[in-house]
Amino acid sequence: MGTAPRPLALRAARILTGDGEPARPDAVVLVRGGAIEAVCAAADPLPDDTVVLDLGDATLLPGFVDAHAHLTLPADRRGYEAVHELPDPDLLAFGRANAERHLRCGVTTVRDNGARGTLGVRLRDLLAGVPAAPRVLAAGRPLTPPGGHFHFCGGTAGTPAEIRDAVHRLADEGVDHIKIIASGGGTAGSRPEECTYSGEHLRAAVGAARARGLRTAAHCRAAESARQAVAAGVDCLEHLDFLRPVAGGDPTVEYDAETVRMIRDAGTYLSMTMQAGGYDTLLDQRGRPDPDERVVARLERYFRDKLGVLRRLLDDGLGERIVISTDAGPADTRFGRFHLGLALAAEAGYPAADVLRAATSRAAEACGLGASTGRITPGHADDLEAVGGDLLADVTRAADVRLVLARGTVVGTGIPA
Ligand SMILES: [Zn+2]
């Protein structure tokens, strides 16, 4: 379907505005010209030329905001090094296809947290001209030390002065935020449990970013990197795995209550990439008659630790700072499966209403878009989705997307006649 010049009214059995309020029964959302015009009762009169779509037993809610993804990575289990043998047009093609997959699962905004060269900004601008595509915020090249995690993107900066220069170069290119690799990650030769930058490096990045009006997001898998990033004033911590090095062995997960207290005091956002690190593989293995027991054991332990961290954060009152994101792109973390992170968060005991805020209004705020998307309220963009049934009763219903609306364009998958 193309862009509808006439007002469109979406009626559903229940509407979640994204604010954490109880569902509004039998309400209607009126959209026109790419924006939400009104939220009214089903019985209220509508403009004469309104096109009415009755979604029936569905939940209408704001489109999801994925605060952490890598659109230009193929999410097909290939390693980073193999992907970056590929030419730019291939990575842009991944980006277009991934954006469409994410849109169809209800994600209407994607914050791209790292792409090679200028591909992040190029993809964002390309998708801005496509009728049915999510809005993209691009970090461009993540800041990383020589040989560090994501170094192949070309954002290498070793000293505080180099970091400041790199931030200004990215700002000149038009990036939307700055991504800092504060600990190691899945790149060959990199260790997730170790810090990559000192506090001085991180402060240089944050200072330069602020001077250019840009927010910062820091990849923090190591516990110590999270502490340093909060102290440096980073706006959003990504992953937050609380990994600690163990001499001669695998790292352990050790929740750090002191860092969490600093996070709470600073009001830092936590972008919890729940399904990243192998949940797609774990689900696949669980469904096989002959699972690889070693892989299953490793992944069960990894996700048990991850849910344990989320539980502790909730117990410590951090629920109000948490954003649920995917980290789709690297390894096996596929696009179009946003619901998996919601299900994992609910499994950790995060109440459904909070999980949904963490994926809509709060995620939009964390990305600096709180005034334009993430809520069903007049004046916001018409970023909407409908899922079958009562989403507040069961967040896994987010897998059953019936309709997505973005920029005045309906992407329907199962609209009742
Ligand atoms: Zn990432």
TrEMBL record:
InterPro entries: Amidohydro-rel, Metal-dep_hydrolase_composite, Metal_Hydrolase, Metallo-dep_Hydrolase
Coiled coil: none
Amidohydrolase-related domain location: 59-411
Domain of life: Bacteria
Classification via SUPFAM superfamilies: Composite domain of metallo-dependent hydrolases, Metallo-dependent hydrolases
Name of this chain's protein: Amidohydrolase family protein
